[in-house]
Amino acid sequence: MYTLRKEDLNVKTMTKIAILGVISFVFMLLDFPLWFTPTFLKFDISDLPSLIGAFALGPMAGVLVQLIKNLLKLLLAGTNTAAVGELANFVVGSVFAYTAGFIYYREKTFKNAIIGLIVGVLTMTVVISFANYYIMIPFYSKAYGLPLEKIIAMSTAVNKYIVDLKSLIIFGVVPFNLLKGLVTSILTVLLYKRISPILKN
Predict the structure, then answer these.
(1) Distances in Å between the alpha carbon of 68 and those of 11, 35, 87, 94, 125?
(2) pLDDT at 44 over 90
(3) Of 27, 93, 107, 128, most Cβ neighbours within 10 A?
(4) Predicted confidence (pLDDT) per residue in 156-192, tens digit
(5) Does residue 1 sit within a domain?
(6) In whole angstroms, what is the distance from residue 97 CA to residue 92 CA?
(7) Domain range for residue 113?
(8) Looking at 37-181, which runs of residues are DSSP E strands?
């Protein structure tokens, strides 16, 4: 397992991570719902800075960027999901960034970057699907006193294939995260080489 070594925990590195976290937070505010998913699933590219950080500074840097992003969201913008949305975002983003960064950091080649991104997208999709099914959506339902049936009905209104919690995961959560991961991965491939020299200096 890769962690930030003690010698890496210097002011310069932490400043870079903090800046990436702030950029990620700004990207998070520019979210919007997709046409085929319930409104509580918002699309954004806020995972991009954490992926770039994970590739340039190590997998744990990507996780720290995710942590900063979601803490800023809670502190500055608040939550309308009883923090469930922020927790889900942190879990998804951290799994994505750490997995991709871990694979890339073993041998920094273009091939490993692509493999890391693909494995990262698939891993985060599996993790968040199970987390939503067993923990997050049921917790959200209880926290707001919102019957699960109503959440399903809201989802059915935008996607007729969603008729229960299982189909919400299959036809909502899974395609949403695959699409988000694909877009973010493409942007990472296009931008990393241009940005990485700044982070490595």
Answers:
(1) 16, 29, 12, 11, 22
(2) yes
(3) 93
(4) 999 999 999 999 999 999 999 999 999 999 999 999 9
(5) no
(6) 9
(7) 6-200
(8) 42-43
